[in-house]
Amino acid sequence: MQSESPDEPASPSGRSAMAAHALAAFRHVVQASAGFRQRPGQEAMAQCVADTLSEGDLGDCAQPEKSICVVQAGTGVGKSAAYASVAIAMALQRKTRVLISTATVALQEQLMQKDLPALAQTMEQPFAYALAKGRGRYVCKLKLERVAGAGSAEEDFFEDDFPAVALASASQEALEERRFRLYEHMAQALASGRWDGDRDSLVEAPDPQDWAGVAAERHSCTARHCPRYRDCSYYQARTRLAEANVIVANHDLVLASLGMKTLPELSNCLLVFDEAHHLPAVALDQFSSTMELAQLRWLDRLPKVLGELASALQIDLDADVNTLSSQLKTTLNQLARMALDAVHAHTGGQDGTLRFAHGQLPADMTEPLAQVLAQAGALSKSLEALGGHIKQIAKEDPMQALQCAQQYAKLGPLAPRLASLVGTASLLLEHGEQPLAKWLQCKSENGFLLLSAHACPMVPGDLLRQFVWSQARAAVLTSASLTSCGSFDYFLQEVGLSGKAHVRALEVSSPFDYARQGTLTVVHTQADAKNVAAYTAEVVQCLMHDLNQVAHGALVLFTSRAQMRAATDALPAALLDSVLVQGSTSRARLLATHTARVEAGFASIVFGLQSFGEGLDLPGLLCETVFITKLPFSPPSDPVDEARAEWLRSVGRDPFAELVIPATAVKLLQWTGRAIRTEDDQAHVVCYDKRLTEQNYGRRMLQGLPPYRLLRRDRA
């Protein structure tokens, strides 16, 4: 919690003492760990983290000092032990908390199931830790009771969340019967204590549409005024968070929770972003906005819901919601026709995406968007006022709490839809010196047209400066891949920390002897990589030859599905049983099969796309060779990337040099990092893209890779 009076900044000697105390805790942990090995890089990282976190002022300070470190810790350094032990020890000393944010479920599970339990056993001071999840991961008990006890789904409950597009393969009656049985089972499990209300602890993951009907959500929750508040799964989890010294969350939740008091305030906790290279992309995603233009049946229900609730409460609505809803639907239909015509004119009548160059909308779209903004804004205000009345009644008369909670829940599906209209229309109409990315998207699904408008800021660093670094006082950003072409410049720019005096950067090398443990072979093909068809054919031919030499485990990384499909189709009969292709089964099952095959003495080869180039830990025989079919340039199709490149060119800058090369270098660093995972591994990387050694930008990328022994192979 925030201090009630300003904290006195610690003296230099006091900061040094805090850092020394935290570093001593780290040393105690590593020495008490089984299989302890002295790792100078881990010690250097712990020292940097200790110095950084001791120098940031927390709580209410007139002129707080900020301190942030950016640490690239190579594979094998043991970065989680370095930052967690230091941060926890310092948090306990400073009577504050640690917020650790990750990008992947795998790292969250590692922290919660392995790293933090191990620290809790070895650290001298006890601490509590908890995992933070979004509200939507928990069941709303009131909703569940309503649908499980109704005998059948109520029409007004499902109409918004399960439109006709979802009913193409089942009758309405059969669908409702199946859902009723599912909800009845969930309600019984929750009531008996066999289930804690957390979606992730269900034996089988529910269908997203089924879960949406009973998920907790902010817009339909009366919080402490709800009669089920005391035994609410979400608020019980919030209580555990409030009692924890260490909270593990993810980047999405941290950014989505800013200003909502769900997590510790960034100005009054020690903050760690692990897998920090994902932070810029998550920021763009969090602050983008989308509105649907085609599925508008909810607008037919909106005035009915608001009217019935207002009548039940005996209050007058602030606006004519019937007229406003009708006007809004008419305006959205007009926009939908314009959007569909524009997309089809751009794509030749096909589904696709139309990005507006330089963020400039067609002149005829401006007025309808302004009307959407005004009409949706007025409806949103009426809905908000009505919700306020319902909460006030529940507060003043607890006997009506159940009825009020049920009434308030009816507003839940409507509020975020109106908010998306207001937010997206506002961004689409905005045009400043630095334009936003704006685009339309049209696609067909199960015979239904999905049409949407999108707007998004282009520069993640600006967003993070405004919303995160303006608040954070003591923070650590770490990953195994923060440098690009041997420099932190690109990451610091993307994350909004470039040129800041209170930011220090440290690169901690891996303890692995890459030159002794492995090689990087660059194959010089005859075909140029820009000649896609000829290059793919030659690479597939080379790959088939090389795969015949695999004795144990190998990983092949492709840059496109078409490339992976070409290689899969070319597999000879002798290799068919040895290859596992991403997408043929779940990731977990595929990797389990791969492991079992290798452990049984068979050769096993994994074909994967870009997502398999990061976070995959296949030590020893599980991955003796990584084959990289092409430098992992992202396809130039993302509207935000396109808009940003366009803007950079318009101001005389080179997007290929500033964005494309650094981003590709980071991916290549991740991909080559799949080969050697322990100090005992012997592994090799084979890259079929000669641009890595022939082009200046390739040689720049090469400088940022682990120091493998470099070899060249020429195609005859």
Count of helical regions: 27
Form type:
globular
Derived structural class = alpha/beta
Lateral strand order in the biggest sheet: 3-4-2-5-10-1-11
- What share of the residues lie within helices? 40-55%
CATH superfamily of the largest domain: P-loop containing nucleotide triphosphate hydrolases
Percent strand: 5-15%
CATH class of the largest domain: Alpha Beta
Q: How many distinct domains?
A: 4
Give the radius of gyration. Answer: 28 Å
Q: Main beta sheet, described?
A: 7 strands, parallel
- State the CATH architecture of the largest domain: 3-Layer(aba) Sandwich
CATH topology of the largest domain: Rossmann fold
Explained architecture:
- By secondary structure, the chain is α/β, with parallel strands linked by helices.
- The protein folds into 4 domains: 12-128 and 244-281 and 461-508, P-loop containing nucleotide triphosphate hydrolases (Rossmann fold), CATH 3.40.50; 140-225, no CATH class; 288-456; 514-714, P-loop containing nucleotide triphosphate hydrolases (Rossmann fold).
- It has 27 helices and 18 strands.
- It is globular and about 80 Å long.
- α1 (12-32) packs antiparallel against α2 (40-55).
- Residues 1-6 and 151-170 have low confidence and may be disordered.
- The strands form 3 sheets. The protein has a 7-stranded parallel sheet with strand order 3-4-2-5-10-1-11, with helices on both faces. It has a 7-stranded parallel sheet with strand order 14-15-13-16-17-12-18.
